[in-house]
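Sync notes, pocket subgroup
Present: LS, DG
LS reminded everyone that the earlier model was apo-only. Rerun requested with 4'-phosphopantetheine included. Inputs:
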Amino acid sequence: MSKIAIYPGSFDPITNGHIDILNRALKVFNKVILAIACNPRKNSLFTVDERIRLAREIFKNNKRVVVDSFDGLLVDYVRKKKANVVIRGLRAVSDFEYEFQMAHMNKKLAPEIETFFMMTGQEHFYISSQTVKEVASFRGCIKGIVPPIVEKALREKYGSK
Ligand code: PNS
C-alpha cells in the first residue's frame, strides 16, 4: 500500500511549526499532501493562491510533498485522493479540545479515515499563524518563526519598518 497522508489546514500563512509537522510526517508516509482549505467564512490574510504559492516554493525540492487546495468536507477530499490518513499537529493542551471534536466528527463521517496527531518540537510549540500575523502586523520580528519567503510576504502585506 502506498502510504499517502493528507495534512490539511488554513496555513494562513505556513509557519515553521507546520513545516516541522510535515517533515515528521514524511518519516512515516511516502507522500504528504499539504491541503489548503478554502474557507470563505474565514477572514484570511492570504488568498488561497498566495498560500499555495508560498507552500510550493518552500517544498519545491521535495518530490514527496504535494501542495493542493480543497473546499467542502475534508473527508470527501481525503477519499478523492484515495488516502485514509489525516495528519494534524498538536502544540499545547489548548489545541486538544478542538482537535478531539474534529477527529471524532471526521470519524463519524468517514470511519475508514484515521487522524494521526504529531507533536510539534519544543522550539515550535508556541507558534501559530494567528500570533505570527499579530506580531507581523505591528512589524515585530518573526525571523526563525516562518521561512524567509513568508517573512517577505508578511512584510509586503503589512509594510516594513
Ligand atoms: O488550520 P486550521 O484552520 O485549524 O484547519 C482546520 C481545517 C481546515 C482542517 C478544518 O476546518 C476542516 O477540515 N475544514 C473543512 C470542512 C470540514 O471537513 N469540516 C468538518 C470537520 S469538523
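DG: The longest strand covers residues 31-37.
LS: The helical segments are 16-25, 48-58, 74-80, 93-109, 129-137, 148-158.
Action: DG to write up.
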